[in-house]
Write a structure and sequence with these properties.
This protein is mainly beta. The chain has one helix at about 1-20, and strands at about 25-30, 35, 40-45, 55-60, 70-80, 85-90, 110-120, 125-135, 145-150, 150-160.
Length: about 160
């Protein structure tokens, strides 16, 4: 009987832990096997309130197969009326000793990476966010064709707190 009670308690704790009222949008796209440098990960978002400020995040799930200490991404936001914002981003993914950063108890780590802070979606309509990797090996001009170790790419919107 104690074993059954332990499972119920664990399940309840996990459900409470996973409930997140802070999200406005949170979606992941799987990256099967390898992330090709030309593959764009795309998210379509219609923000709920054009008067409020939001923080934007890129979420990355990676395994121990990820062999770099950093991650370069090109992220683009296409506004409903044609305006575009594009940025090249760099994130630290491992400590100097090679230990991967991020949350997770298994070999899959999840990283919540800042993209933009205090953004106002002031145009009504659908916004399109595209993300692609821009990784290169040291000393090489050409990019890494197929990036290993990334399993999922996500995009998240949260209300900005003052």
């Amino acid at each position: 009987m104690p074993n059954k009670f332990s499972w119920i308690l664990l399940t309840t704790a996990l459900l409470l832990y996973n409930c997140d009222s802070n999200q406005i949008f949170d979606e992941y796209k799987s990256v099967p096997n390898q992330w090709h440098k030309d593959r764009l990960i795309t998210f379509s978002v219609t923000p709920p309130d054009s008067t409020k400020l939001y923080n934007l995040f890129i979420n990355i799930r990676n395994t121990n197969d990820y062999k770099f200490s950093n991650l370069f991404l090109i992220a683009e936001i296409n506004f409903p009326h044609g305006k575009t914002f594009k940025d090249t981003l760099e994130y630290q993914m491992a400590k100097p000793d090679g230990t991967l950063l991020g949350q997770g108890f298994t070999d899959i780590k999840e990283n919540k990476l800042w993209f933009r802070e205090a953004v106002r979606f002031d145009e009504l309509g659908e916004y399109t966010i595209t993300i692609q990797h821009a990784m290169r090996n040291n000393g090489e001009v050409n990019g890494v064709d197929n990036l290993e170790g990334i399993t999922d790419v996500g995009f998240r919107i949260e209300p900005a707190t003052n």
